[in-house]
Every structure is written in C-alpha cells, then in structure tokens.
Design goal:
Elements: H1 6-16, E1 19-21, E2 33-35, H2 37-56, E3 61-64, H3 72-77, H4 80-83, E4 85-90, E5 97-99, H5 100-108, H6 118-127, E6 144-147, E7 150-153, E8 163-166, H7 171-176, H8 178-184, E9 191-200, E10 215-225, H9 230-247, E11 255-259, E12 269-277, E13 280-289, H10 293-302, E14 308-309, E15 316-317, E16 320-327, H11 328-339, E17 340-344, E18 349-353, E19 364-368, H12 371-385, E20 391-393, H13 399-408, E21 413-417, H14 419-424, E22 426-431, E23 437-441, H15 445-452
Parallel strand pairs: 3-9, 19-20, 19-21
Antiparallel strand pairs: 1-2, 4-5, 4-6, 7-8, 9-10, 10-16, 11-12, 12-13, 13-16, 14-15, 17-18, 21-22, 22-23
The structure holds glycyl-adenosine-5'-phosphate.
C-alpha cells in the first residue's frame, strides 16, 4: 500500500479545500494555516463532539469564553513571563536556529532531551557530533532561553508598562474565573470549567504542517477538586481522553500514553496522549495534576482569596486542579491522516476519506443520474435535506467521477436521483465505505442518515 506522507496530506488538503497555507498569495507566513470550507467543518464538528462529551455529558461542567488578552500579572503568576521558553542554539555555519532538546530527541528517537539540563544538552550534542538538520555540520552556539509568548502593546505608548501578551494557553482564563463560575453556578467540588479557544506561541521550530503552529486552538478542561481526590480524577481523565479519541475514530493501536518522567516542580503527575503520525509519535493531549499551585499563585499575585468554602464542613481551602488539554489542530491532523485510504477496485483505484460520519464535512450528497432529466427533482430533495444536515449537490461529470469526488472528501452517503425517484418516489443511497447501495423511500432518507451520523 502507498505510504501516506506529510506532503501527500498537505496536497489533498489544498486540493479539496480542507486546509490552505496562511497568506498564500504572499508566499505564506511560516507555521500558519487557514482552514478551508471542508477543514472548518471538521474542526467545528470536533469542537461540538468535545462539548458534548465534556460539558454536556459530564455533571458539574461549565463552559467559558474568556478574553485572549489578560492582565500581564496573570502571566507573571502563572510562571510564563519567567519560564515559558525554549532552549535555542544557532548553527554557526548556516545560521539556522534549532531547539537543542529537539536535536537530541530526533537523533536518539526518544525523548531523553526533555530531561537534560543546558550543560547536559550541549555535551550530548558535541559528544555525539549531532549534525545541523540543514547543513549537516556540528558547530552550534551555546544555548539561550527564548520566551515563546507573543507581546503586544495596549494604548498609544509602547513601553514596558503597556505590554500585554497573547495568551499562550487557555487555562489561565479558567483559573482566574474559578470563583466567578463556582459562585454563579453554585457548584460544589469537584466541578469543571472547559474552554475552547485560540492560543499563541512564537514557535521557531519547523511545524510539520498544522502540528506545530504559532496560532492554534486548544480545548482545555480544568477540574477543581479537594486534595486527596486529585489522583483518582487524574487517572479518570487520562482514560476519558483516550476514549474520546477512539470515539472520534482513531484506532487504539495508534494511540499511546507518554507519562512524564521530569515534572515541573509543582506538578504531581503529567501524561500525554500521543498519536502515531507518519513523522512519528506526537502529543495531541496532556493531562496534568497541577496541585493547588495555580490558584495559590493567583491568590498571591492578585491579593484576592481563591479559597473554596465547603458548605458541609465550613472548611476553607485552595482546590487542586486536574487539567486535561486537547490540541484541536493536532486532533484535526490525526483525524485527516487516519481517514485517508487508497483502495484498489476491480478496474480502478479510489481515494477515500473514511471520517467518522459525525466529522464528515458533508453528511450526504445528492446526484441526479442524468442532469437533463433528474436535476429538478434532485434539487428539490437537496433543498429539503439541507435543512437537516450539510448536504452537497453535484450534477457535473459522469456519475462515477462524482462518486469518486464525494469519496475523496469523505461524504458518507450519496443519494442518486433517477427515473425510479420520479416514477416511484424512491432513491438509492450508496454507503461510502462498503460502496453498497440500498433503496429508500423519500420520506425515509432523513431518519436513515440521522441515525448514522450521531456521536
Ligand atoms: N494548559 C496546558 C497546556 O497548554 P501544552 O501541552 O503546552 O499544555 C496543550 O499544550 C496542547 O496544545 C498540546 O497537547 C497540543 O495538542 C497543543 N499545542 C501545544 N503547542 C502547540 C502548537 N505550537 N501548535 C499546535 N498545537 C499545539
């Protein structure tokens, strides 16, 4: 079977309108991508699926839509101003810039670079003569830390006092609103705040398409709990996350946990879920037991108490937080890779995107068999189905070519309108995956499809 490469998926995304290079007509802006008509539908479907599983189906869960720009003190309290940086080195020969930990991890094929100090990284790179990926020489500068936050200024004067940051994660929006949500929703611990939104990081390393971008979306879920119940919730959300990905159609053998050996000093446990991309295993989710560090820091920096008062015991304490964060763009990328399939047919081949029907950009397509005779009836049916779900209409080209196009964009059901429709009120529905066709009455179509596109 043909190996699916990154280049191939980038081309498919461009050809069919899933994802385009950002600012393409200006030769693009590195590590930015624009979701086209089909890509945005998949992205929105994943957000809806996440909302359903995390906010709707979990008791005591609330959604938030916080500002991207927050008070600069938030980022001092969170530790991002002081410590959100990458260890960078420049190649003295070709002047390209690299992350020292990535050079090591790519060389060893594991993640040992993550747990090394600066000195250890420099030594390891020298001892092993690790080459620059661009020019092949091993002649690097020392490591220096580079802060990943994007800065901008508010107001007319650009000075240190006017600096604000584009948020590098959603989480702090949930943390600073912890008491607002708790009081207005009158919730008892444990309760959760989820948020879907943009985050920005000044990433300098090459991105692997949408895997690492400078602007991306996260679906973050923070569970506030009492110390003692934290570790059980942590384990629960690790599993819940994996199940969520499997429900989206990602196979278990392409998902794995990666427990962190080196933890930030306040964290009790951290684990990523990784997906097996063509370029190797890559993190798509992280679950973290953050203890009561974040709220303690916000209490200290804001001067506002961040305590929860237990209504049963009157006990006051700062809750622990278990975070489970999902990279939306990386989830879309995993879904795209996983869906692609090239199949040999009897006298032909077909490319098909086998999306979970809930994620497919169009749920069905209406095709008149012969434009001249069947398009009027087909248009009538299309206009009716469009009221229920995203429906595509195509009357140009041979019926075979139109099937192929719907396969290539992953439309799970294709409805053909022919003489039988006009004379007997029946249609044929072709299933994308099995290519089998069945006959249905017109008034059975909506129910048939709705039952098969649920999440
Ligand atoms: N609040 C915790 C947090 O932000 P993170 O591991 O830095 O944790 C969470 O990010 C998720 O966001 C990652 O698992 C990944 O899926 C996604 N992510 C992080 N950086 C990204 C980038 N530069 N481009 C695309 N997605 C990214």
């Amino acid at each position: 079977m043909e190996k699916l490469t990154m280049e191939k998926i980038v081309n498919i995304c461009k050809q069919y309108g899933f994802i385009f290079q950002g600012s393409e007509i200006y030769d693009g802006l590195a590590n930015t991508w624009d979701y086209g008509p089909l890509g945005s539908r998949i992205k929105n479907a994943i957000k809806d699926a996440w909302r359903k599983r995390f906010i709707q189906e979990n008791d005591n869960s609330y959604e938030l839509d916080a500002s991207i720009l927050m008070h600069p003190r938030v980022w001092e309290a969170s530790g991002h101003v002081g410590g959100f940086s990458d260890p960078l080195m420049d190649c003295k020969e070709c002047k390209t810039r690299h992350r020292a930990d990535n050079l090591i991890n790519d060389f060893t094929g594991d993640s040992r670079g993550d747990s090394m100090s600066h000195e250890e990284m420099v030594k390891f790179i020298k001892d092993n003569n690790i080459p620059c990926p661009k020019c092949g020489k091993c002649n690097f500068t020392d490591i220096r830390e580079f802060n990943l936050m994007f800065e901008t200024h508010r107001g007319v004067i650009k000075d240190d006092k006017s600096i604000v940051y584009l948020r590098p994660e959603n989480a702090q929006g949930e943390y600073v609103n912890f008491l607002n949500v708790q009081r207005t929703m009158r919730c008892k611990l444990p309760f959760s705040i989820g948020q879907i939104g943009k985050a920005f990081r000044n990433e300098i390393t090459p991105g692997n398409f949408t895997f690492r971008t400078i602007e991306f979306e996260q679906m973050e879920y923070q569970t506030f709990c009492k110390e003692g119940s934290d570790q059980e919730l942590y384990e629960y959300f690790k599993e819940y996350g994996k199940k969520f990905y499997m429900d989206l159609g990602l196979p278990e053998e392409k998902l794995r946990y990666h427990d962190h050996e080196k933890l930030v000093f306040y964290a009790k446990a951290a684990c990523d879920i990784e997906y097996l991309f063509p370029f190797g295993w890559g993190e798509i989710n992280g679950t973290h037991n953050r203890t009561n560090y974040d709220l303690t820091r916000h209490q200290e920096y804001s001067g506002e108490r961040q305590e929860y008062i237990d209504p049963d015991t009157n006990e006051k304490f700062i809750p622990y937080i278990v975070e489970s964060t999902y990279g939306l763009d990386r989830t879309v990328l995993a879904v795209l890779f996983n869906a692609y399939c090239k199949e040999e047919l009897e006298n032909d081949t077909r490319e098909v995107m086998r999306f979970h029907p809930y994620l497919a950009p169009y749920k069905c397509a209406v095709l008149p068999l012969v434009k001249k005779y069947h398009s009027e009836k087909a248009m009538e049916i299309y206009e009716e189905l469009n009221k229920h779900f995203m429906t595509s209409y195509d009357e140009t080209g041979s019926i075979g070519k139109r099937y192929r196009r719907q396969d290539a964009i992953g439309t799970p059901f294709v409805i053909t309108i022919d003489d039988e429709t006009i004379n007997n009120g029946t249609v044929t529905i072709r299933d994308r995956d099995t290519m089998k066709q069945i006959t249905l009455k017109l008034d059975e179509i909506v129910k048939y499809i709705e039952e098969r596109i649920k999440f």
